[in-house]
Design a protein that fits this description.
Largest sheet: 7 strands, mixed
CATH superfamily of the largest domain: Type I PLP-dependent aspartate aminotransferase-like (Major domain)
Number of domains: 2
Bound molecules: pyridoxal-5'-phosphate
CATH class of the largest domain: Alpha Beta
Length: 425
């Protein structure tokens, strides 16, 4: 279905209804002033052009209104994040009351553990994937330690058969450990392989055994189609600086399923921004929770950090996840086609370790010379991502990468192989 030529890539771009969105983003440039071939939106998404304006607007309102900006500026700050929630809810398949924006990802997962990791003497284990993202490992181990459990026995790390664990591996592990697992915490999209888990199936199996299940959606939000509400996920959190393009270290999104909203028994660490708006500034001693995920809020929010997230959500609102994921699939499939072509032409040992069920990323395992190839790419206007010991991650983001980008990446990848290994003819 795909063809090799540059013209073919250009034709795909000409027929791409999202092609113009590329111009809505700033690209890093080469010394010659050319746009770099940016394939690291899975780590830090590019800056939307309107981010600067949106931040500038807050700075202006701060200058003009000072403290009155909280309530009386054109875009009041006290509920700024609430106006973002309906847009964000569409990205993750939630009801607006089920999402909120606060803190950062690891901090949020810790706070969510207060509510959703409630171990008993018999049911205390946490089930996760082997080689989970390091911050998640530290999080789970420190939570177990905090609750007095030994992580050697209380952390069940599910392994795959020589590769990342699959949905089937998790289902089997849940069935085997159902009586001792208190919480399951998994990455929806594996950060290393980019494989997507069947969140719906794993959630259903977990819940059928009365096990609470949460998802780290750092690599999933804004990347794959999600239906967190319909799938019955208990809770989820994600960062906004990858596919959500909200800027370095920007705030984290949180999902808490509606069925948990009215439970007065649910433990939670609380702060004044979680108080119902009708009472928030009455400075009462008692905590009247806001409706929904908002009740988990703690502090008044850093509006300057929210502003680019808001700018980015406007683009998501315009485009919609259905169009983005459709382009993403075509773009990543095309990348796979080009890499397989190179492997054939050069006979070089390249292995795509990303399964077919994936988002906007391919992880290429290069056993011998990977780092030299990666360095050569970086020296030649490409921005891919390196993961030890020998994987190059390449993430074509449908918002701003073109098919021509992918074509040019493949050309430079081939050059890098020839230039760094003289045994390749
Ligand atoms: C899968 C995953 N989980 C957690 C984190 C940690 O995020 P933060 O530093 O925002 O807490 C990251 C960061 O890249 C990640 O990729």
């Amino acid at each position: 279905m795909f063809q090799s030529s540059l013209q073919f890539a250009k034709d795909l771009d000409a027929n791409d209804s999202l092609a113009s969105y590329r111009d809505q983003f700033h690209f890093p440039k080469t010394a010659e002033g050319e746009k770099k071939l940016y394939f690291t939106g899975n780590s830090l998404g590019l800056q939307p052009l309107n981010a600067k304006n949106r931040i500038g607007r807050i700075l202006d309102e701060w200058a003009d209104y000072a403290v009155d900006g909280h309530f009386y500026s054109e875009h009041p700050w006290w509920d700024y994040h609430e106006r973002m929630a309906p847009k964000l809810a569409k990205v993750v398949g939630a009801e607006p009351s089920e999402v909120t924006i606060m803190n950062t990802l690891t901090a949020n997962l810790h706070f969510l553990m207060v509510s959703f990791y409630r171990p008993t003497s018999t049911r205390y284990a946490i089930l996760c994937e082997e080689k989970a993202f390091p911050s998640d490992q530290y999080l789970m181990k420190s939570q177990l330690k905090f609750h007095g459990f030994d992580f050697e026995s209380a952390l069940i790390e599910v392994s795959g058969n020589g590769s990342a664990p699959t949905t089937e591996d998790f289902v089997k592990a849940i069935e085997e450990n159902k009586d001792r697992v208190a919480l399951i915490l998994l990455g929806g999209v594996n950060y290393y392989t980019a494989g997507v888990l069947d969140i719906e199936t794993i959630t259903r199996v977990a819940r059928s055994h009365g096990i609470t299940i949460g998802w780290d959606l750092a690599h999933a939000a804004g990347n794959i189609s999600l239906k967190l509400h319909d799938w019955g996920v208990d809770f989820a959190a994600w960062c906004s600086y990858k596919y959500m393009n909200a800027g370095p270290g920007s705030l984290s999104g949180v999902f808490i399923h509606k069925r948990h909203h009215d439970q007065s028994s649910i433990p939670r660490f609380e702060g004044w921004w979680g108080v119902d708006k009708s009472e928030r500034f009455q400075m009462n001693d008692s905590f009247k929770p806001a409706v929904g995920a908002e009740a988990w809020q703690l502090s008044n929010l850093p509006i300057l950090a929210l502003a680019p997230y808001d700018a980015s959500l406007d683009l998501f609102e315009e485009v919609g996840m259905a169009s983005l994921t459709a382009k993403s699939k075509q773009l990543t499939d095309y990348l796979e086609f080009k890499i397989r072509e190179i492997a054939e032409q050069t006979g070089y040992p390249l292995e795509i370790i990303t399964p077919q069920n994936r988002g906007a990323q391919l992880s290429i395992y290069i056993p011998n010379n990977g780092r030299a190839i990666f360095d050569h790419l970086c020296e030649n206007g490409v921005v891919p991502d390196w993961r030890n010991p020998n994987v190059i991650r390449v993430a074509p983001a449908p918002f701003y990468n073109s098919f021509e980008d992918v074509y040019l990446f493949a050309e430079r990848f081939k050059d890098a192989i020839y230039s760094t290994d003289s045994s390749v003819k």
